[in-house]
Amino acid sequence: MNIQDKKVNEALANLQIASLNEMQLAALEVCKKGKSLVLLSPTGSGKTLAFLLPVLLNLKPEIKNDIQALIVVPSRELAIQIEQVFKAMQTGFKIMLSYGGHDIKVEINNLVEAPAVVIATPGRLAQHIRQKSIFLNNVHTLVYDEFDKSLELGFQEDLKFISTQLHSVKQRILTSATQAESLPDFAGVEKAQTINFLTDAIPPQLDLKLVKAIGTDKLEALLGLVCKQGTLNGLIFCNHREAVERISEILTRREIQHGSFHGGMEQIDREKSLIKFRNGSHRILITTDLASRGLDIPELGYIVHYQVPHQESAFTHRNGRTARMFASGEAFLVLAEEEKLPLYLQKEIEILELPAEAITPPPTEFETVYVSAGKKDKINKIDLVGFFIQTGSLEKEDIGKIEVLDFSSFVAVKRDKVHQLLFNTKNQKIKKKAVKVDVSN
Fold this sequence. Notes:
- This protein has 441 residues and is of the alpha/beta class.
- The protein folds into three domains: 3-196, Rossmann fold, CATH 3.40.50; 206-351, P-loop containing nucleotide triphosphate hydrolases (Rossmann fold, 3-Layer(aba) Sandwich), CATH 3.40.50; 366-439, RRM (RNA recognition motif) domain (Alpha-Beta Plaits), CATH 3.30.70.
- The chain has helices at residues 3-15, 22-32, 47-58, 76-88, 104-110, 122-130, 147-152, 156-163, 218-229, 241-253, 267-278, 312-319, 381-390, 418-425; strands at 37-40, 69-72, 95-98, 117-120, 141-144, 171-176, 193-196, 206-212, 234-237, 258-261, 284-287, 302-305, 329-335, 350-351, 366-371, 399-404, 409-414, 429-430, 433-434, 437-439.
- The strands form four sheets. The chain has a seven-stranded parallel beta sheet with strand order 3-4-2-5-6-1-7, sandwiched between helices. The protein has a seven-stranded parallel beta sheet with strand order 10-11-9-12-13-8-14, with helices on both faces. The chain has a four-stranded antiparallel beta sheet with strand order 16-17-15-20, with helices on both faces.
- Helix 2 packs parallel to helix 3 (47-58).
- The protein is globular, with a radius of gyration of 23 Å.
- It starts with a helix and ends with a strand.
């Protein structure tokens, strides 16, 4: 076994992944030859690992205090997800996040001893370059992840500026979930090999159904659908933030646990919504197309197009959130009585009949608890489990998924144990640090 194969196998073992899929294998083979790559593949197909393995193979342990690889992403949530996967690979290389909303002083301190890998959003990265707090002179591996989304969000000028600072890049990897007619020159991939794994707007394993509202009252139809789906996890997609808020209000009135996610929310509120959805405190996430790709969210039972997107590409990305990795899934279109299907959906779609009465699903098993300490306080998951068991008097099975951020942590705890936990941990300490423990708002 050569050293490259050994590195890949060790990373996969640490990730508890038995083998790579066809797309990941094809990408790895191209990159092993030192070629640049344009990787076209749908949401949920495993693109993150497809480019992280080549990045790992290019990193040189003998190079110290210098950035070797740069991964440019369109959103902070995607940056965090990639960092989590890379850390789980246990490579021994330092990695750093850089994105708007993150404390820039923390980032500058982390750059004093430069990491091997930087994951950054275009705006924040351009800011670092301009104030000379980051230097990219020796970056040899460049990844543009979800490149089409970065262009769609208006980052073209920032990306163009960043490209002028990259003088030593030997391998470029550009990933996208849509196929563009052409790519801008600054991407530098005109000689790259293209691998295309894109599929149709409606995957063959996706069961698409129509929910017809009475008159124009789509909210009542949506509520009936959500109640019918019961305890399944689902995403509700809207075209506008205002619709997200309206749906949230009606679900709140019915005491149905859910989260909201859109670009007008504060970063920490967006992060908390994703955390609660991932850990099972919420079964439903109401969102704009911001959550249609590039996010680490659990397997879904269904998705809902509350407002049908104007573009077929957006429809494709949304559908990619279920029926992932060749699994089956359900998608629902909610239409008002006089509302018409877009031209790209001119086909016969089965109509779903809803029950006469919308019965509210039972509460979720878990609730999310906030702890006022995180990575920068030298607190990790093991510390939190020990604290909740020894001081909080919980059993191990009372504790669900734990996520540790820089200065805070979020822990899923069984609902019927939360009151007991809060009482027992009031005014207590973790590693001699006084912490606040409370239900996450």
